[in-house]
Amino acid sequence: SVVFEMLVDSYRKMGLLAEAVDVFLTIKYVEFVPTLLFCNMLLRDLLKANKMELFWKVFDRMSDMELTFDVYTYSNVINAYAKAGNVDEVKKVLLEMGENGCAPNVVTYNMVIHNLCRAGHLDEAVEMKRSMIEQGLVPDNYTYSTLVNGYCMERRLEDAKLVLSEMFDAGLKLDGVACNSLMDGFIKQGNVEEAFKIKNKMVSHFVQMDLVVQNTLLNGVCKAGMMEKAREIVTEMIETDTKPDSRTYNLLIEGYYRKHDMVRAFQMLDEMKKRSLAPTIYTYSAIINGLYLSRNFGQARAAFGEMIKQGLEPN
RNA sequence: AAACGUAUGUUCAUGCU
């Protein structure tokens, strides 16, 4: 069995998943049961690589073996159904695992709650939080942040705020991810001011301003045309050693082109390249839109050509 | 033998609405 696992492992690590699965499936004719961890890692790789047919083949074979699945196994199954957008099956996994003697934990519930939120079933998601408490589990930062984000996606910002206070009342410290979801929610409603109020709250609670938060705020000010404020944010990022990424520059480029300032937009593109950040399809989209807006169709076409040359696929 | 090793939340572009 050691040789067997080494063989499958080698294939896995070389990214030859089809081969790994082939070997795995020969188990039927061999007289041993592989370890659960080993199977779980194979499932995880198949999920990551989007090889869903292989995933289910392996899972079916696992079901035929003398294995008792653990929470990791079921997490993989949940992710598999989630990938297919099948929320009903996701919920069923929760019941099934209970029947099979594997009690769902906080992570399992969080995954289900996340998928309910994604499907827009917020009431069910909240209900799910209630039942996890009934099971003696304690909702954590992920649980609350997921719900905050769920409400934000539905534009129910007041409800989102309530969850945030609930989290705080539960004794959890102010969570940067939850705050970011809320800020993003307000920004998408055009309410930059409210977003900055949340930022100030973060500062007063000593919550780290990370790259994601700064990009969120930058998105707000750039969309609002507040480019002086945008420069301030970037300066603050550099001072606090939060390295801008390609999204940061994409947002700046977008902000400037919306103001018909292609000179500064191109300056941002240069600065981005100087920091050895590769332009993405978003970068080129912004540049092309800007050039189109200023009626530079030739340059727009040239930018498109350059994008192709960089090996970026137009979508 | 033990330990280690596998699962969960947030940010960017175009058009139509």
SSE order, one letter for each helix or strand: HHHHHHHHHHHHHHHHHH
Q: Quick check: average pLDDT?
A: 95
- What would you call the shape? globular
Secondary structure class reads mainly alpha
Biggest pleated-sheet summary: none
Radius of gyration: 24 Å
> What is the helix content?
over 70%
Question: Alpha-carbon distance between the termini?
Answer: 46 Å
| Number of continuous helical runs | 18
Tell me the total number of β-strands: 0
**Uncertain ranges:** none
Percent of residues in β-strands: under 5%
Descriptive account of the structure:
With 315 residues, this protein is mainly α. It is built from 18 helices and no strands. Helix 5 packs parallel to helix 7 and helix 7 (106-118) runs antiparallel to helix 8 (122-134). The mean pLDDT is 95. The protein binds one RNA strand of 17 nucleotides through helix 3, helix 5, helix 7, helix 9 and helix 11.
